[in-house]
Amino acid sequence: LDKSYRSHWYCRKTSDWYLLWLKLESMLPPDVNCWADNFRMKFRDGTFSNNPGVETRVTGFGTSHGLDYVDNWKKISYYRDLVSALLALPGAKEDLTVRSAPYDFRYSPPSKVSQKYFDDLKSLIEDTYQKLNNTRVV
To answer: Cβ distance 65 to 47 under 8 Å?
Structure first.
């Protein structure tokens, strides 16, 4: 976070990386106002982007557990049970045969982020195919 303004006097202008979605304590007043300003997207020149000074990244791309939980407290399970069941199958290997590709759902094509995601997804599939000795991947 490196903004030139504050949406409210109590909101931070700068910050190191932190969880934007879904940080439960950010959903409470008055922090929800800061969260909403950082979460908001702009649509300019036919593409979506973050507000100025807001940079986001998705964690866990290519790992088995990138989609386990929605929240930072690990209270809201997302795909944890599915991933655990897949990893329990014979031959399943963490971060090799079971991999995730999380995506920032706020971006829709066309955007630089969505194009980078599809490029990264293609690379992840090709990488998995090669690591599995040219075995088809689903």
So the answer is: no
* Cβ atoms of 97 and 63 closer than 8 Å: no
Dihedral sign, Cα of residue 71, residue 74, residue 77, residue 80: positive
Tokens (6 digits) for 124: 């992840």
Tokens for 30? 């008055």
pTM of the model: 0.84
Phi/psi of residue 44, nearest 5 degrees: -135, 140
Exposed (0-12), middle (13-18) or buried (19+): which is 64, by Cβ within 10 Å? buried
| First-residue to last-residue Cα distance in the chain | 37
Q: What is the mean pLDDT of each run of 10 residues along the chain (138 residues)?
A: 95 92 87 95 86 92 93 89 97 96 86 90 97 92
